Amino acid sequence: MQPALRRSNEILILRGLSASRTVSLLCLALLAALLVKPSHISASPEVGIPFKRSYPLEEVGVSRSVQLDFDPIGRLAAVDNNKYVVLNDSSWSDLLDENQLSRTEMYATTDSEGHTYFGGLAAWGFLERGLDGTLQRLSFRDRSVPSWVDATNFDMVLPVGDGAYFAGINGIVHWNRPSQTNTYIEAPDLVRIFVIEGIAYASTHSQGLCEISIEEERLIPLQTEPKELIVPFGVAALKNGQTIFSTTDYTFVSYENRQFEAWPNELGVQQKTQISNLLKLPDGNLAVAIDNRGLFVLSPNGKCLQALTASEYHRINDLAARENGVLWVVSESDIQKILYNDPVTILDQRSGITVSWPHIVEKEGSSLIVSHRVLYELAPAELSLAPRYQPTALQPPDGVLAAAEMDGQILMGNRDGVYVRNNDTLDHLIRDIEVVRILEQGESDFLAIGRDQIATLRWDGVRWFEPTPRITGVGFPFICLAAKNSVWIELGKNRAARLSIREGEIRKQVFEDFPWENASWVHIGVVDEIAVLSGLEGKRLYFDETTESFVETLHLQRLLDSAGFTVFRPVKDQNGIVWAAHENGICTIEERQGTFHLDFDSYRTIRDHVPVIHLSDGTEIWVSNGSTLYHVDGNRAAKSPAPFLPTLVSIIDISDRTLLYSVFETNSIPEEIPFARNDLEFHYFAGSYASANTPIYQFEMSNRATDWSVSSTESLISLTKLKEGEYQLSASMVDSKQVLGERSFASFTIAPPWYRTSFAYFSYWTLSAFLIALIALALATRSKRRHAELEALVHERTEELRDTLEKLNEKERKAAVLSERNRLASEIHDSVQQGLSGLALQIEATLKLPDLVDAVHSRLAVAKNMVSFTRHEVQQAVWGLESPLLENSDLATALKKMVSLVSSGGPEIEFRSQGARFELGASTQHHLLRIAQEAATNSIKHAEASKITVQLDFEKDRVSLEIADNGKGFDKSKTLNGGFGHFGLRGMKSRAAKIGGNLFIESDPQHGSTIRIDVTPSDSHR
After folding, report:
1. Do the bridges between strand 680-685 and strand 959-965 make them parallel or antiparallel, or are there none, so unpaired?
2. Between helices 922-941 and 854-881, what is the axis angle to 10°?
3. Cis check: omega of the bond before 396, within 30 degrees of 0
4. Per-residue DSSP letters for 160-171?
5. C-alpha separations of 304 from 247, 265, 625, 632 in Å
6. How far apart are CA 829 and CA 839, in angstroms?
């Protein structure tokens, strides 16, 4: 487990009390005489603003008084009242147990062994980590405490050796871990506690610097030189035995060999401004936060390396650092990560520049910047302020599109031509030409390049003039680069140009024929005397400036190809390092003893697509595109591998969120995980915050069955439905081009399920052998009964054959009967029924004669009714013989047809059917149809119903037919128990019995009737 150091283990800086005690005028005078007034800044800090990432306090869920700490695995922790929120790569999680809430503020610090101590109002103790990683307060307070303890807010926590100090305004408590005891030291005017080389010290208003004596339970004032009272407020212990103090009198002093001396530095006089934080950084430098002034990084000798003086840094509540180059800052609105040692800094509005298609102008001692039609220069350094740029004096009225410098004179180009500024004068050199780029050629010539025209300007030591005729332009000069004898211009897709001055004229060469299939933007770079023209997919052309022809250069080609990915616009600085752009930023390639070394890590902050690289004076590196401008310090390039080493924080069973492994426990990753827990979630921490961008994880899994790899911005990966076997999961941090840092590996085994264990397989083999023995015994026994079994089989088959023949005969008989019934039905229908129909029509016609006497008319009406009844009875007999409605139809279709026939001219009859239909036997369909027909006829004939519903339901293994009406109904008990009559209902019961159905009849007088039959068709009825 790596120790997490919130600060160096030699220092601790927490909130303290502002100076409130007045020191005598004599002491102040002696102190002023002692402290040598620091000089002004002699050398400006680096150009640009370091990269930062902000986390608003509201997003983190903490207040302005939040304190920073690092947990045992190095994750940043924001400690606030009832909060211990850690930053896991990009997300914040509160680890404090919600059941451990307190009304007081909490302050916490983690020591090098991973113990986290906390302090609060009259409270101090240990934050105990549970199996799930959550923290619970474990109090060290004993029963008997001095009275001053209850009025003390222990806001200073200092782990030392095998214990810890807890201090507040009224005194100090020391807790000894081996003996589990507290020691109390009252100190009413305490300012700070800190440790230097393992010895704990305290700072008080009345006694100055004191050593904390646990044995004597008191503070021992130190005999220091000078004798005047010096009250340290902040402390930074350097490696050389020197300690830098900030004092309550707003000054810096150096303490060494029990003597105080003034510490000269470039921050100057503090003007009675509180030095709120002083922090020793991991690289040995100092971070200093000064109220109303800003944040500064100083070297041990007091040189100002960086200065952040924007208003957001005027009140800093806390600082923390654990790894080189990463500084954490708590401002009044957010928590910031500042990459203070990154070689890349950004220039923008904070630097005084409006960035829009910037380009750099070389000037002796500094660089000028043309951006957004303004020419900027570095403003004179002010006391302890960050470098800022300001517009130069005497700029053309229409702005500046291009600029160059010559012997202190500034050439400026725009739409009106070229201007020259010399001291305090601005002259218009040439007109009638739009100039968007000015580049130097030779010792005294400059090419003024526009879209439509190109001109030459020359300085002869006395005046400027045009030594050559102007020529037509080659198009808009998007990007220009000066080579040894020419200027190269990027003009677009498959288009580039070269300009040179030869024999008193400007020569131009336009290149539009390139050896790649797909047209692409032509990017141009210059390495020594070779111009490199690059297209897509690593396709390049090399132009020799000496021979003015395209050549092959295997060495340069190998150098550029050594990057492993396509690079563009290479340029070489005076140290022999080649700088090149790629699809996501820049890199460097350096040749050392015949081997090419690529540095991609140092410049990860730049994420622009193929930016432009400019070398000013051959050493100063600028990188830009349309909307950004970076300054690169090549001396800060990484000299060691990237610090990323992913840490496996926990393994969780997804199904019930059981914690299987925690990095905070001493146990290792389980060697074998039960098969029932084969859905796993692995949580990681990148191990570093040094990346300017969101970390990208590369997870790789390998086992005997499969290998796979996946990238993710999430710090967790879920593995589900894992089969039994051995697995190895590796995690690494990657950028767009390569792996960053080292890989971490997690090996584990998923145990097989119980039925695939060795014991189970042994049981299977044993059971199989037992079954084989039983089978052999059964076969032996069976062979003795074989003859009897064969005889029984023959007898059985004979009976089955007999049954089959009988069934066939019965089927043929039924088919013959059905055929005969259909024939008879057809004959009756064509003869008797037709005759009766004709007779009915004749009687009907006779009844309409006007001369009929009443007696005859009455007799004919009776005859008509008898014929209708007879015809109806014949029709019923025909229907009993055949089922024409069922021809080529299923039951549902036949019922629907029957309803339409019966309802014609009568009451409303509705047919409904539901359920998945299945095939029924002919007999079942026939009887169900007749029952429906009989019931519907009765409803019309006897019940005088106005609405009838026929419902057919198909269920899984049952058919249900229901006929319901709203007629006058009948008394079911009298009707069904009566003697003669009601043959229709009896016929229904008979038909239901024939198909094995159950008939249900529900009726009440004046409330309608319902008849339902439920049939469970057997195989014979299907």
Report:
1. unpaired
2. 160
3. no
4. ETTEEEEEETTE
5. 19, 8, 30, 18
6. 14
Burial readout 500-526 (b: 16 or more C-beta within 10 A, e: otherwise):
bbeeeebebeebeebebeeebbbbbbb
pTM for this structure?
A: 0.71
Measured CA to CA, the distance from residue 270 to residue 703 in angstroms comes to: 64
At residue 906, what is the residue type? G
For helices 983-994 and 922-941, the axis angle rounded to 10 degrees is: 160
Q: What is the pLDDT of residue 161?
A: 87
- DSSP element (H, E) containing 764: helix 758-784
Per DSSP, the residues of 383-433 read TT----EEEPSS--TT--SEEEEETTEEEEEETTEEEEEETTEEEEEE-S-
On whether the CB atoms of residues 252 and 266 are closer than 8 A, the answer is: no
- CA separation for the pair 154, 182 (Å, rounded): 14
Distance CA 284, CA 298 (A): 9
Task: Return the DSSP state at 721.
Answer: S
**Quick one: pLDDT at residue 830?**
60
How far is 423 from 420, CA to CA, in rounded Å? Answer: 10
Phi then psi dihedrals of residue 314, to 5 deg: -80, -15
Going by C-beta distance under 8 Å and a sequence separation of 6 or more, which residues neighbour residue 284? 238, 239, 300
> Coil, strand or helix: which one is 298?
strand
Residue-level pLDDT at 883:
58
CA–CA distances in Å: residue 215 to residues 164, 176, 212, 220: 15, 12, 9, 11
Residue 19 is predicted with a pLDDT of 32
Q: What pLDDT, on a 0 to 100 scale, did the predictor assign at position 23?
A: 34
According to DSSP, residue 61 is labeled T
Helices 854-881 and 786-828: angle between axes, nearest 10 degrees: 160
Residue type, 215: E
Torsion angle (degrees, nearest 10) of CA 167, 172, 173, 174: 100
Report the amino acid identity of residue 216: E
The radius of gyration of the chain from alpha carbons, rounded to an integer in Å, stands at: 50
Do residues 864 and 842 lie in contact, with contact meaning Cβ atoms separated by under 8 Å?
no
Q: At residue 621, what are phi and psi to the nearest 5 degrees?
A: -110, 130
What's the confidence (pLDDT) of residue 152?
Answer: 95
Distance separating alpha carbons of residues 693 and 53, to the nearest angstrom: 9
| Residues paired with residue 153 on neighbouring β-strands, in sequence order | 121
Q: Which two tokens stand for residue 618?
A: 């051959």
Burial of 29 (0-12, 13-18, 19+ CB in 10 A): exposed
- State how far the Cα of 714 lies from the Cα of 325, in Å rounded to an integer: 24
Q: CA–CA distance from 73 to each of 113, 128, 518, 696 (Å)?
A: 10, 15, 51, 19
What is the number of residues in the chain? 1022
What are 927's two structure tokens?
């009887």
End-to-end C-alpha distance for the chain, whole angstroms: 77
User: What does the alpha-carbon distance between residue 87 and residue 78 come to, in Å, rounded to a whole number?
Assistant: 8
Tokens of 48: 């640009």
Could you tell me the two tokens for 868?
Answer: 């209708």
Cβ–Cβ < 8 Å for 588, 323: no
Give strand ranges (E) for 703-793.
707-712, 716-719, 725-734, 739-750
Which tens digits make up the pLDDT trace of 262-315?
899 888 766 678 899 999 999 999 999 999 989 999 999 998 888 998 889 999
Segments of the chain scoring below 50 in pLDDT: 1-43, 383-384, 978-981, 1020
Rounded-to-integer distance, Cα 123 and Cα 121, Å: 5
Residue 925: predicted pLDDT: 84
List the beta strands (DSSP E) in 485-617.
487-492, 495-502, 505-511, 523-527, 530-534, 540-544, 549-551, 568-572, 578-582, 585-592, 595-599, 612-616
